[in-house]
């Protein structure tokens, strides 16, 4: 399966037309359709992967696990104080940081 075919199939499963996916990813007009014959840029492929909530590796066919986390995406450590820095330019108090951590963990 080509990258274009995989994207087309995923878009359909997610309820997007290729045109809508193209727009949601912020790509130029009909960019995805051009991928039938041309290779997409890394940046464009990354944008499409983000919209479809899969890794670039999955789109490229390098893995069959669509939920695999791309090594390029940062992972936030909620236990580190520098993970939650500021809100609206104002430092977040320690007690609020703990509340935010609990909310993000779902506890």
Protein architecture, described:
The protein is mainly alpha-helical. It has two domains: 3-60, 434 Repressor (Amino-terminal Domain) (Orthogonal Bundle), CATH 1.10.260; 76-107, no CATH class. Helices cover 48% and strands 4% of the residues. It contains six helices and two strands. The protein has a two-stranded antiparallel sheet with strand order 1-2. The longest helix is centred in the N-terminal third of the chain and has 12 residues, at 3-14. The termini are far apart.
Supply the CATH architecture of the largest domain: Orthogonal Bundle
Largest sheet: 2 strands, antiparallel
Count all strands and give the number.
2
Overall mean pLDDT score? Answer: 81
**Order of the strands making up the biggest sheet:** 1-2
Order of helices and strands: HHHHHEEH
Let me know the CATH homologous superfamily of the largest domain. Answer: lambda repressor-like DNA-binding domains
Q: Treating each run of at least 4 consecutive H or I residues as one helix, how many helices? A: 6
CA-CA gap between termini = 41 Å
Overall geometry comes to elongated
GO molecular function: DNA binding
Protein name: XRE family transcriptional regulator
InterPro entries: Cro/C1-type_HTH, Lambda_DNA-bd_dom_sf
Pfam families: HTH_3
């Amino acid at each position: 399966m080509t990258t274009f075919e995989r994207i087309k199939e995923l878009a359909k499963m997610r309820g997007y037309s290729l045109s809508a996916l193209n727009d949601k990813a912020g790509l130029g007009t009909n960019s995805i359709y051009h991928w039938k014959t041309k290779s997409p840029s890394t940046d464009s492929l990354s944008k499409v992967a983000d919209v479809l909530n899969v890794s670039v590796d999955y789109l490229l066919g390098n893995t069959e696990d669509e939920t695999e986390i791309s090594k390029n995406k940062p992972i936030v450590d909620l236990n580190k104080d520098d993970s939650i820095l500021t809100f609206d330019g104002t430092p977040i108090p320690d007690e609020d940081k703990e509340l935010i951590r609990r909310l993000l963990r779902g506890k």
